[in-house]
Amino acid sequence: MISGHLRVILEADYPRFSEAEMARRRAAIEALLAQAECHHLVFCGANRFGSAVQWLTGWPVTAEAVGVLTPGARDALFVQYHNHVPQARKLARDADVAWGGQSAIRAAAAQLEKRGAKAGHVAVIGPLSADQHEMLATKFAKPANLNKSYLRLRTVKSAEELDWLRIGAHFSDLGMMALRDGLRPGLTERELGDLVERAYVAQGATNVVHYFGVTPMHDPQIAVPSQFASTRALAAGDIVFAEIAAAFWDYPGQVLRSFALGEPTPLYRDLHAAADAAFDAIAAVLRDGALPAQAIEAARVIEDAGFTTIDDLLHGYGGGYLPPILGSASRPAGPVPDEPFHAGMTVVIQPNVVTPDGKAGVQTGEMVLITRDGIERMHDVPRGFAITQSSS
């Protein structure tokens, strides 16, 4: 239930972060520029990808947006298409917004020249195509890549960002509860997506993902949610496991659950028991200063039960798919990071426990906030293996 100051944010015509919050972000970016010995930043996004544009200006990227940030000057933001400019000016009201013309990156380069940018003192954040990178490099030498530093910057959330994430978590809960309550034999996987989106789109949410895994518990063939829905109809005796993320603007929640259409088989009870135990064990070690290796070690209850994983065990979230990205002991995700967890980080604990042959699996988990002494739940959907006694 959204109430109080979160309701005020939700019901605003176009919600906006405070001037103090936007100044905090700008100061953080300017500190990164100073560390890189750069005087100008090009930040960009395309096709709704590139979180720095919205984080710095308030404009969610549509087709393309390229911005120029120079300490002491107003941001310049070049937007595609021409018909997107009016609303971009309304939302990015602290930037000088203009149409990018035939090339937004060329418009940004021209702006850099006006600002006296010198070779070797330009940095970038966001996805640049090879042609865009070449054009900047030709004029200003190879730009400094601040993407990794920016991602680390986004891992710890401000109080205002946490408010927006709580709204995103609420929307994600609505989707998962609609799935739980609407499951019945005969629905196709496509119709499951319809159930989920109807629960939150009308309230102001944006769909991020709704991935489903559906397979018979007595003859399982799917162990991790699929990214694209099939036309297969649900049947009694199926397992349905889901990953749902809905966002409030650029601030999503993420919740993962498993449902049985009928009595679970012993295998699926064991799988889910291991997943619950892994979630609890990871949650017990997370706090300010805990190390990623401790989370992975805590999750060894999965291997102790004779199972493994396919999906990542844990990842940062909110502003992107953020570090740390951790696999399990039996399915590593690369070198284990040394950087500890910090209070203010939001992470998704998501043990996807599967059989060694990769045919049967369950999913459970949700986004949580790391605090000084532990974690705080961001979601309200009850945990556990839900059983729907539906029959065909």
Structure at a glance:
This protein is α+β, with helices and mostly antiparallel strands and 392 residues long. It has helices spanning 4-11, 19-35, 51-57, 85-91, 104-114, 130-140, 147-155, 159-182, 189-200, 266-285, 292-298, 301-304; strands spanning 40-46, 64-69, 75-80, 95-99, 122-125, 144-145, 206-216, 238-248, 251-252, 255-261, 308-309, 314-317, 321-326, 346-349, 352-354, 361-363, 365-370, 375-377, 386-388.
Q: What attributes does this structure have?
A:
392 residues, alpha+beta, Creatine Amidinohydrolase, Chain A, domain 1, Creatine Amidinohydrolase, 2 domains, 10-stranded mixed β-sheet, 6-stranded mixed β-sheet, 35% helix
Note down, in words, how this protein is organized.
This protein is of the alpha+beta class. It folds into two domains: 4-154, Creatine Amidinohydrolase, Chain A, domain 1, CATH 3.40.350; 159-388, Alpha-Beta Complex (Creatine Amidinohydrolase). It has twelve helices and 19 strands. The strands form three sheets. Strands 7, 8, 9, 10, 12, 13, 14, 17, 18 and 19 form a ten-stranded mixed beta sheet that branches. The longest helix has 24 residues, at 159-182.
Number of helices: 12
CATH H-tier superfamily of the largest domain? Creatinase/methionine aminopeptidase superfamily
Sheet with most strands? 10 strands, mixed
- Low-confidence residue ranges: none
Rg estimate, integer Å:
23 Å
- Mean pLDDT, nearest integer? 96
Class of secondary structure makeup: alpha+beta
Proper CATH architecture of the largest domain = Alpha-Beta Complex
CATH class placement of the largest domain: Alpha Beta
Can you tell me the overall shape? globular
Q: Total strand count, please?
A: 19
* Helix coverage percent: 25-40%
Number of domains: 2
Distance between the termini: 34 Å
In the CATH hierarchy, the third-tier topology of the largest domain is known as Creatine Amidinohydrolase
Range of strand content: 15-25%
